[in-house]
Design a protein that fits this description.
With about 100 residues, the protein is of the alpha+beta class. It is built from 2 helices and 4 strands, in the order βααβββ. Helix 1 runs antiparallel to helix 2. It starts with 6 loop residues before the first strand and ends in a 6-residue tail after the last strand. The mean pLDDT is about 90.
């Protein structure tokens, strides 16, 4: 496990959820090859859907751009090892 080595770039998540995000990312890196970003992202998304309800999105990689709207309190962007992690819950039209 690599907890404590993640660098949070930006977030509006509660601290407990941030810790869960980084622990889940660390767990995924223990299971999957660091080059298998799709499997790492799927692992994190499924975990967050199970714990916090459906609708979560996860992007993992070393170089990506994005533009999205998220639900308040559900966004985190952090770096762990050589990868960047973006986790958020999509906003509905009523958010």
């Amino acid at each position: 496990m690599l907890e404590g080595k993640a660098l949070v770039e930006d977030t509006d998540m509660p601290v407990k959820m941030q810790i869960q995000a980084m622990a889940c990312a660390s767990q995924a890196l223990d299971i999957y090859d660091v080059l298998d970003c799709k499997s790492i992202a799927a692992h994190i998304k499924k975990e967050f859907d199970m714990i916090y309800g459906t609708g979560w999105q996860c992007v993992v990689g070393s170089n990506f751009g994005c533009f999205f709207t998220h639900s308040k309190g559900t966004f985190i962007y952090f770096t762990l090892e050589t990868l960047n992690f973006l986790i958020f819950k999509g906003a509905s039209s009523s958010d």
